[in-house]
Every structure is written in C-alpha cells, then in structure tokens.
Amino acid sequence: MADDYDVVVIGGGSTGTAVARDCAMRGLETLLLERDDIASATVGTCAGMISSGLKYMDEPEIVDMCSEEVVHFRRIARHLIMKNPILTPLMQMSDVSTGGNFAEEYSKRAETRDVPPVLFLTPEDALEIEPTLNPDIIASIYFEEYFISPFRLCLLQAIDAQRNGASVRTYCEVHDIENLDGDGNQVTFFDRVSRKTESVVVDCVVNATGPWADEVADMASANVEIRSNKGAHVILDRRVVNVGIIAKAVDGRMIYLFPHENTALLGTTALDTWEDPDKLVASSDEIEYLLKSMEWVVPSIREARIIRTMEGVRPLVADWKKPEDDVTRGYEILAHEDGAPGIFSFVGGKLVMCRHMAESVTDMVCEWLGVDKTCYTHMRPLPGMDGDLDVLALSKKYGVSQHMVERMRTRHGTETEQVLELADAHPEWKTTVCTCEPVMEAELRYSIQEEFPRSLNDLRRRVRLGTGPCQGTFCTYKASAILTKELDWSGIDYQLEIMDYLAERWKGKRPSLRGEQLSQEELMQGIYSCVGNIDQSDAEYQRKPWEGIC
Q1: By CB neighbour count within 10 A (0-12 exposed, 13-18 middle, 19+ buried), where does 107 fall?
Q2: 3-class SS of residue 301
Q3: What are 364-395's pLDDT values in tens digits?
Q4: Residues 148, 50: contact at Cβ < 8 Å?
Q5: β-strand 196-207 against 5-10: which pairing, if any?
Q6: What pLDDT sits at residue 3?
C-alpha cells in the first residue's frame, strides 16, 4: 500500500510543532494533526520562561541542555524573547545557604547564556529595584532569565513546517491508529470543520499529545504511562511588580510572580491529578495558596484584581513514590517496537526542551525510514527573525503609534511591515480593536489571512486579543464581526462565536470571582445579555465541558 506521508505528528503544542518543523526541514513528507488550535492545551498555560533549568540542579545534564537550548532560541527566535530581571527575596538566614548553591551553579553558565552572574543585594538595593517588596527582607538574589511567547513559538514552528512542505491540519481529532502488518500505520481522524472523517497511511507516527499521550497510544494498542501533575496560575490586572519575584511558598516550594505583557502572572501549584485535562479549572485552594505565599514578600499583592486563572497539566515521567519536585523534568521517547512498530511517544519534557525533543525523535524517525539527514533547526531562523526592525522609522512611515508597532514587532518580527502595508492600503483598518493590548484591525485581518485561525480564541493566541484587564468586554463584538467578514460566516456563526469566546473566558474567570472583579463581570454580562441580548439568541450553542463545573 502506498504511503500518504512519511510521518504523522499528533499534537500541535511546542513539541509537536517542533517535530513537524524538523521532519519537514529534513525532507520528510509530514502531516501535523491537532484536535483544536495550535498551542491550545498545556503549553498555553505555562509562564513562557525558557529557564536554564536550575530548579533541577541535581540533574546537571538537564541544566546544561536547557542552557544550550536558550542559546539556540535566541538565535532562531530573538523577536519572541524577552530577558527579565528576577529577585529572590530572602526572609530568613536559612534561605541564604540555598541561595549560595544556586548562585554557584547559575554563574557557571551565565556567560554562555549572555546573562550576568548572580548578585547578592542588600535590602536597600533590592527595595530600590522593587519598592513593593516586604521591607523585612534580609537580602535578595538577583539574576536574569529569558521568556518566550509560547503561543507565537508554536505558531511560527507550525508555519515554518508548512513553508518547508508539511501539511498542518488544525481541528482534526485522531480517532484510531491501526497497524497494517508491515505496511505502515493507518491514522483515522475527524475534521471538526468539514465534519468529515479521513484516513491516511504513514510509516511513522509521533505521539506528542502531552497529558493525552496515554489515550492516543492506546488507540494503537501501545502502552504509555505518565504522571499527570496539574498547575494553576493567577493572572492579575496590572504589572504588580517591575521585575520577576521568586519566593518560597507556604510548603517550602518555590513560586513566582512575573510581570507579563500588561498584566502579572502568579504561579504555580503542583498537584498530582487523575482528572480529565479538558475539564480542569483552578480551585479556590490553589488561588489562596498562591496569594498567601506571595504576600509574605509582596504584601500589596491582594490590592490587584484577579482577572482570570488558568490550569494546565504536566505530563511527567511516571516516576512514583517521590514528591513532585523530585521527579525528573527530563523527557523520554518510547519506541513501541513490539506492539506498535513505527510509533513513538513522548513523556516528560519542558517548553525550553521542545526543539531538542524534536531533534531526538526525528533522528529516530529518520533511522526507521532509512533517511540520512542532519538536523539544522537550531540554525535556521523562524519566520520574522531575518533581521532587526527600526520601530521608530516604521511608526513615522505608516503613521501608526510607536507603542502599537513595538507590540506587533514582538509578535511578527520583520514581518510587521506586511501588517503595516495592509493598514496603509486600508486606512480604516488602523482602528484599535482591543485597547487593552492594543491590537489594530489590520493585524487581526493579517492574522486571519496568513495564520489560519478558526475562532476568536485562535486570534487570542495569535495577537493577545482580549487578554488584558477587561478580558474581551469591549472587543469581542468588533473582533467577531471582522472574523465573520473574513471567513464569510453567517449571522448565526457570528453569534455562536461570541458565545464560544465568552464561555472560554468564563472558564478562567469563574474560580477567582471576588472583589472588584465581580463588578467587572456584572458589567460584562449586562453588556452582552441586557444590551446585546446574546442570551436570547436562537443559535444552537453547545455547552463546553467545563460549564457543568464552573
């Protein structure tokens, strides 16, 4: 039987898109299948820190690997990366010894990663950098880490895979994987957009589905065991701090508070879970755990408004009978040679390792196929990384604010000018749709035309639409109208899209509703129900899995 593809990659997260890119760049006929949108699951709930792995100092090979991957990311995706200063306030003398060990390991690799060595600061110096710190601190550790936009990283990896010949199919859910007794594997999937079931025959299947890896492997009668560990983040309505803060939580774990775009990100919890990843939401206990722990070092943190929460699942290596913190953050690739030949599954791993994980499994796929091709994903830039951008000059040339152009630069890199050319050809598209971020109409149009979104949630992941303090209150109608026009939808589609988007936002808002956020939510519901009458629509809306919980 003739094969349709050399390899099918299942899962459109950071690892899956990286695998598709690597396979395509090595000349393999590649198909990427993602049941929802690119980066719509686990990777979308992380903080985006591509750390040097120093939390796991007892695994020096992982620390070295993470440090090297940071260097690669800065080469191929510098426009998506920010370097943030971080303070670790020390409240007790016992914290000082831990800080010394960390400082030594960090400083060994500092020059490679182009960051300064760890500094120990006096309370006065730390408070000058971050005045919101508790004045009772006895010292602080200062260091720097890199952060990347996980949504844009995954999207650009997928787009680069496409540009190298791969097929990328979103909203395609795999239902079955059948071994053809030496003639490869038949993968059957349901296209949720066309509502059609399709099958392809391939030599290899890469299972990069994170917390769903065991379910997907089971379709091929293969066995994968993972240790599912959930983590919650709380998102605050402002940049509560000027720099990142890492502190000890009530149980001695380390948690963090990072300024993130126009908001602040407080995380994270770590709890073993056997719940359905599709239904998980942050609990009140998790929210209070994070707030209580961080207010010891940032006493004013409760003055900020919680605009939403998010909960993700880490698919850890199944290493049991030890605390979560002691489980390796490395990864394993399972080659199911006996029962499911040609199928490879990932367990474990971190965002910063995704390119390395892709290189490893693509080496195995190439060996299986008898292909002799070398990886060069660490050398070739991602789209938008083919030079630097003069933001000020572009701002003057196109009559768009410097702030707006800079925000676009962080998303599109050198391809920002294509967005501005669109605005120049259609001056009416210079209007600001999302004022929190901000997002210009021309950028939405560009994304819809070039980045294959199918919903407002997809646009949120591409351009941060509706992610600011108002959580889409004032941009959802406008953005849905633009999407409807571009995709030639009906009026019913327009209404359903608004309901879907509001439901997704509700998933993250409901667990934390309190204080001023209650008033904000009343305003939003008044706008959409009492004014827009969206609750009186005849559209046949299907409730989401989490709506029976929230």
Answers
A1: middle
A2: helix
A3: 999 999 999 999 999 999 999 988 899 999 99
A4: yes
A5: parallel
A6: 66
157 three-class SS: helix
- Between strands 331-335 and 343-348, the pairing is antiparallel
Q: What is the reported pLDDT for 550?
A: 52
If DSSP codes are grouped into helix, strand and coil, which group holds residue 177?
strand
Report how far residue 7's alpha carbon sits from residue 26's, in angstroms, rounded to the nearest whole number.
12
Shortest CA distance to 235 belongs to which of 406, 84, 45, 437?
Answer: 45
Q: Are 85 and 129 in contact (CB under 8 A)?
A: yes
List C-alpha distances in Å: 121 to 140, 355, 501. 5, 35, 45
Note the pLDDT of residue 262: 87
DSSP 8-class letter at 340: S
How far lies 467's CA from each of 238, 405, 455, 501, in Å? 12, 18, 15, 12
Q: What is the pLDDT of residues 526-550, one digit of tens each?
A: 999 888 888 888 888 888 776 765 5
Q: Is residue 302 packed enough to be buried (19+ CB in 10 Å), middle (13-18) or exposed (0-12)?
A: middle
Per-residue buried b or exposed e for 187-220, using 16+ beta carbons within 10 Å of the residue's own CB: bebbeeeeeeeeebbbbbbbbbbbbbbbebbebb
Report the residue count for the chain: 550
Low-confidence ranges of the chain (pLDDT < 50): none
Residues in a beta bridge with 147 = 49, 82
Contact 216, 207 (CB under 8 A): yes
Q: What would the pLDDT profile of 407-433 be if each residue is shown by its tens digit?
A: 999 999 999 999 999 999 999 999 999
Enter the pTM of the model. 0.95
CA 327-331-336 angle, to 5 degrees, is 120
Separation CA 458–CA 461 (nearest Å): 5
Q: How many angstroms separate the Cα of 399 from the Cα of each of 89, 412, 415, 424? A: 44, 18, 17, 9
Six-digit token string for 183: 């003639």
What DSSP line would sit under 117-144, residue for residue?
PPEEE-HHHHHHH-TTS-TT--EEEEEE
DSSP H stretches of helix in 340-490: 354-369, 391-398, 402-412, 416-425, 441-450, 456-463, 476-487
Give 479-494 pLDDT, tens digit per residue. Answer: 999 999 999 999 999 9
At 166, list the tokens: 């791969």
Tokens of 303: 């003055």
